[in-house]
C-alpha cells in the first residue's frame, strides 16, 4: 500500500513522445515547462523526485533497425536522444527554482555527471531533482527498464509511469468507446494479457522486486502530485 502521507521518493518515467507535444519530432518547450512546473510543486511538498526520460521523439533503435541500421548502433542513437530531453527538462526545472542534476549512463562530462547511484541519492536528499539520461547505457533495453532499474537501485518506492491516457485499458480507448480502465492489476496480469504498460523486461524486473507502478495521465496538471500523495488515479500495478 501507499505509505501514510504519500510517497517520499519516487521515480517518474516520462516518454520522449510527451516531450514532442503535438509534433512528431523534437522538443516542445511549452510541454516541457508544464512538466517542470508539476515536478517543482512535488519537490516543494517534500517528496524526492528522480526522473527517467525516453527518447522516442528522436530515435527508436528497433525502428531504425527495421530500416536497415545495425541494431546496437541505432540503440546508441536512441540513448543519445534521451539526453537532449534531459537537458531540456533540466533547463525548465532550473527556471522553476528547483536544483537539478543530470546523470548519464554514457559519459559526457561537459553536459552531465556520470551515473553514480550514491551521489544520486545525496542529490535527492538535498532536494535536487535527478534526471537519468541514456537509459541503461546498453543496447536492447528500453528506458522503461532503465526506470525500473534506477528506481530499485536508488530506493524509490514507486515508478510513476506518465502517459497520454489516464491509465491502462483492456482495449485502445481512442478507437473503442467501450474500452474499460483497470483500477488495479498485478504484474502477472500485465504480462499475461500483454497490456501496454511497459515492455516485458521492465514488468518482470518490477515483479521480481515487488516494485509498484502507477500509470496515469501526465497531461492533467497536478496529476504527478496526486499520484505522489497516494490518491487513486490511473491504474496501480502491484503484486
Ligand atoms: N535505448 C537503449 N537502451 C536503454 C534505453 C534506451 O538502447 O537502456 C534506446 C532504444 O533504441 C530506444 C531508444 O533508446 O528505442 C529510446 O528509448 P525508449 O524507446 O525507451 O523511449 P520512449 O519510448 O520512452 O520515448
From TrEMBL:
Pathway: Pyrimidine metabolism; CTP biosynthesis via de novo pathway; UDP from UMP (UMPK route): step 1/1. It is an enzyme of class 2 (transferase). It is found in: Cytoplasm. It catalyses: UMP + ATP = UDP + ADP. GO terms for molecular function: UMP kinase activity. Inhibited by UTP. Its EC number is 2.7.4.22. The keyword Cytoplasm applies. InterPro entries: AceGlu_kinase-like_sf, Asp/Glu/Uridylate_kinase, Uridylate_kinase, Uridylate_kinase_bac. ATP binds at residues 13-16, 56, 60, 169, 172. Pfam families: AA_kinase. UMP binds at residues 55, 75, 136-143. Residues 9-217 form the Aspartate/glutamate/uridylate kinase domain. The keyword Electron transport does not apply. PANTHER family: URIDYLATE KINASE (PTHR42833), URIDYLATE KINASE PUMPKIN, CHLOROPLASTIC (PTHR42833:SF4). Homohexamer. Catalyzes the reversible phosphorylation of UMP to UDP. This is Uridylate kinase. The gene is pyrH.
Amino acid at each position: 500500500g501507499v505509505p501514510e502521507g504519500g510517497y517520499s521518493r519516487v521515480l517518474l518515467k516520462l516518454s520522449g513522445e510527451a516531450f514532442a507535444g503535438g509534433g512528431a519530432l523534437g522538443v516542445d518547450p511549452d510541454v516541457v515547462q508544464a512538466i517542470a512546473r508539476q515536478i517543482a510543486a512535488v519537490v516543494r511538498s517534500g517528496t524526492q523526485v528522480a526522473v527517467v526520460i525516453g527518447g522516442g521523439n528522436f530515435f527508436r533503435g528497433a525502428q531504425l533497425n527495421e530500416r536497415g541500421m545495425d541494431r546496437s548502433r541505432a540503440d546508441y542513437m536512441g540513448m543519445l536522444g534521451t539526453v537532449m530531453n534531459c537537458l531540456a527538462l533540466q533547463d525548465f526545472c532550473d527556471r522553476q527554482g528547483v536544483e537539478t542534476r543530470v546523470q548519464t549512463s554514457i559519459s559526457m562530462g561537459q553536459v552531465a555527471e556520470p551515473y553514480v547511484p550514491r551521489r544520486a541519492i545525496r542529490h535527492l536528499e538535498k532536494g535536487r531533482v535527478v534526471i537519468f539520461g541514456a537509459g541503461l547505457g546498453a543496447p536492447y533495453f528500453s528506458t522503461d527498464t532503465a526506470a525500473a532499474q534506477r528506481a530499485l537501485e536508488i530506493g524509490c518506492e514507486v515508478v510513476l509511469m506518465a502517459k497520454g491516457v489516464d491509465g491502462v485499458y483492456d482495449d485502445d480507448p481512442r478507437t473503442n468507446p467501450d474500452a474499460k480502465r483497470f483500477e488495479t492489476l498485478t504484474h502477472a496480469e500485465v504480462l499475461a494479457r500483454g497490456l501496454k504498460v511497459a515492455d516485458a523486461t521492465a514488468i518482470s524486473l518490477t515483479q521480481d522486486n515487488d516494485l509498484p507502478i502507477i500509470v496515469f495521465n501526465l497531461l492533467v496538471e497536478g496529476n504527478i502530485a496526486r499520484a505522489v500523495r497516494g490518491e487513486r488515479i490511473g491504474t496501480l500495478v502491484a503484486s
